[in-house]
């Protein structure tokens, strides 16, 4: 069981690293990774120009059992919205915001799918 958990965490971290590198290559500045507030965690908080982007990263080693982004449900969205609200208040952010999903499939090379405005 422990090896399954550590493999799951390793896969997730690898996906987040690929997503952060992808965002940087697209001109985003990654402000925070793994921002936690209460029971929620925002995988990546990035900025491009005057836009603050909250990114949920979903990673799979294969798409055999569906696409990674399909794992983002309403409960996860609610947790992310609450954490994002706290971050916005703490930073005094008054510009535009957006919620994205980046799905990463760990093929060779990795497949990255960036879904902008994934939810509100």
TrEMBL record:
Transmembrane stretches, start-end: none
Gene3D superfamilies: 3.40.1350.10
Matching InterPro entries: Restrct_endonuc-II-like, tRNA_endonuc-like_dom_sf, UPF0102_YraN-like
Pfam families (alphabetical): UPF0102 (PF02021)
GO molecular function: nucleic acid binding
Signal peptide start and end residues: none
Family, per entry: Belongs to the UPF0102 family.
Protein name (record): UPF0102 protein D1627_10200
